[in-house]
Amino acid sequence: MRPILERQRVFNGEGWFGKMMSGTVEKDNSVAQKTDSALVEAAAAGDADSFTELCRRYYPSMVAIAHSILGDRHLAEDAAQQTFAKAAVNLPGLRQNNRFAAWLAAICRNAARDMARKVADVPDCEAFARLTRRGGDDDAVEAVREALGKLSAPAREVIFLRFYDGMPYEQISDVLGISEQAINGRLRRAKKQIAAYLQRKGFREG
């Protein structure tokens, strides 16, 4: 039971997430050099510092995944925190340490979907919209939001990870458990769908 208590220490009065969001968590370089597999093994044995490093590495990605489902940044942050709280308890059940990222993403999707049952919203794409809009065109922002809302969940997820979180293909592959080729295909199809929708709405490239 003690290893679980040590991992949960990250979420109690120490306020780890609040400190991380404010930039006041000090990075332990010795722990930061470890691979995910090594960190998972140590965290499962009760090393809170290793679990903290896993949180640091994957928190932004989990927020992006949850955001793609919930359409609300604050709810997405709540879902990400729930994800790590659940992971802290269930980590010993992970049989393949090198699958931690994909395992965590699955927990995050479930947490976000549970929230989404209570909050039915079209996904907000303000972050991605900022990459595509010109000037302060609110109509363009709304059109991109609508276009993203019409994508399949897997396509929207990879869009958020790539353009919202700025994650490289290799890391997206680890988190989603799919090949880089598959990621490229999803992105290409998603961008075509978005472009087609925008053209139908009267927005043209140029």
Write structural notes for this entry:
This protein has 206 residues and is an all-alpha fold. It is built from 12 helices and no strands. The model is unreliable at 10-14, 121-127 and 129-136 (pLDDT under 50).
Write a brief caption for the model.
By secondary structure, the chain is mainly alpha-helical. Helices cover 70% and strands 0% of the residues.
SSE map:
Elements: H1 2-8, H2 16-22, H3 29-32, H4 36-44, H5 48-70, H6 73-90, H7 100-116, H8 126-132, H9 138-149, H10 153-164, H11 169-176, H12 180-200
Helix pairs in contact: 4-5, 5-6, 5-7, 5-10, 6-7, 8-9, 9-12, 10-12
Give the overall silhouette. Answer: elongated
| Alpha carbon gap, first and last residue | 60 Å
Regarding quaternary structure, what we see is single chain
Taken as a percent bin, the fraction of beta residues is under 5%
CATH superfamily of the largest domain: RNA polymerase sigma factor, region 2, helix turn helix motif
What is the N-to-C succession of helices and strands? HHHHHHHHHHHH
Name of the CATH class of the largest domain: Mainly Alpha
Give the mean pLDDT: 80
* Helicity range: over 70%
Biggest sheet features = none
Q: Can you tell me the CATH topology of the largest domain?
A: Rna Polymerase Sigma Factor, Chain: A
- The number of helical segments is 12
Low-pLDDT residue spans: 10-14, 121-127, 129-136
The CATH architecture of the largest domain is: Orthogonal Bundle
